[in-house]
Description:
mainly alpha
Amino acid sequence: MIRARAAAALGAALVLSACTGSTAKSAGSTSPCALLAELAQTGETVARADISDPAKFDATLHTAVNRYVRTAQRLRSNVPARLRGDVERLVAAAQQYRFDDATTARAALDSYERAKCPSSSSG
Length: 123
């Protein structure tokens, strides 16, 4: 049971904090870089979650996924049109807790972040 929780935590942390190292400009910002940084911050919440308490971990994961999805939905309208399909796939995968699929959907977003967000250290 603990292994399953740890695996879930690891999977969630990988997708939710794929761009750790960015810094958000402000909570209400809609710049792609700030939104990508907000996704990373959400992932850090899961990465620090206590997996020894399954109920608390599940609540943390659920809250983080909901926040991640809301942020990604805001990101969708702030990235170039060529990336919007990737964001849609990311949102769908995250909503369904399919973290491997979400990681795959992030590939082009991570490349975009590395190229356009000077404070990013993703990848």
